[in-house]
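Hi Q.,

Before the meeting this afternoon, I wanted you to have the magnesium ion prediction in hand. No need to reply - just skim if you have a minute. The sequence and ligand are here:
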Amino acid sequence: MAKPVSRFVCQECGAVTSKWAGKCEACGAWNAILEEAARDEVPKGLSGSKPGRRIDFVGLEGSSAPLPRLTTGIAELDRVCGGGLVAGSCLLVGGDPGIGKSTLLLQAAGGLSAQTAIAYISGEEAVDQVRMRAARLGLAKAPVRLASATNLRDILSSLDAVDGPQAVVIDSIQTVYADTIEAAPGTVSQVRACAAELIRLAKRRGFILFLVGHVTKEGMIAGPRVLEHMVDTVLYFEGDRGHQFRILRAVKNRFGATDEIGVFEMTDRGLSEVANPSALFLAERRGNVSGSCVYAGMEGTRPMLVEIQALVAPSTLSSPRRAVVGWDSNRLSMVLAVLDARCGLALSGNDVYLNVAGGLRITEPAADLAVAAALVSSASDSPVPADMVVFGEIGLSGEVRAVAQGEARLKEAAKLGFAQALVPSSPRKGRGAAPAGGSLSIRAVGHLQDVLGLFQRA
Ligand code: TYD
Ligand code: MG
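Predicted structure with the ligand bound:
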């Protein structure tokens, strides 16, 4: 009998090697390689042996009806999923511990239970704990089938029953284990094998499958990245635990747009939807203080206004501090360098703090101009007008570049009562000049130097 071969798998990236090493060659992670028993790979040398069945090719156009979608009753979640959940689809929900994944999915399960049979399988909490949570969420009466289980074999047999559910929540995939695999639950081979089996069953039976996945310190869904390839939709639930806002972000979606986000607020009765996030993010803003600027951003198809705060203070340190919350620190360094080299505003002797108020994370380069305005405003101690919104990308020569969806940003600003907008003047390819502002008065700037001119102290 052949000796069982073992192999070494990086628990961070899933790379396989034949020898143990302290550092993974593929992703550079230290101490992440573990020995695992090799599983059966695809048999080699298929070609030439018994021929396979011929597959039928079809045209791209077909008469299949649009995929029916189930709605959870949580509008923010449905929108992030592309307008509801498609039967047979698998969704991976990632996020830091304690951010609210179990709460969100229990609420979604409650909403779905009104329309279809749904099972909630928790490997993390005992039945009583989930019941307590359900009572707190006002869902104790919802017909959700609840179980606490971790053995894959048991879970598969229960779901594959005649009266099996149409939607299933597995909380979390890291707690599920297959007894055919030696590795501990949560390791790459366990997570991958369990997810693959569950997904196969979901596709075969056509039920909706939610998998909860933990996130590592580095912000990856723990264990294999391969999990992200296996599922149809990857949602990240993020937010700052110090704030009550939670953002649900689709990073992959086979059934809808990705960059869509849903905004929630964590209350003592669970997550409540935030239909008008701009108003919420601006709620605590104090007008007419220097260093504060309202950025008109876009999150997916949704415009969102947020306050960007900067503090520029004299530093006593030899290398002054640069602290950023909610934005990319490399991008801040770039804006500071452009201010220095192209506009003569040197802040190298100052500590610089930048904060996106409310706990939102901004990834768009379109926030450059708003950041620059907040920095200049703080450095010169003259406020950005309280009724002004700002957006625009900054290039390395200091030019202010046009950004997408200018009209939508301005419309949101007008809706929330803003009166002025600081926008790029450069025309966009195939479009007119600076966006027409409707009721807003538009100040178009072509270079960062023009922004400095706005903040000269009288
Ligand atoms: P949970 O859903 O357990 O997080 P995860 O599954 O992502 O680990 O959320 C836990 C946190 O949410 C916990 O700190 C308590 C808080 N919470 C509320 O504030 N209100 C609520 O109604 C519930 C159910 C939880
Ligand atoms: Mg949980």
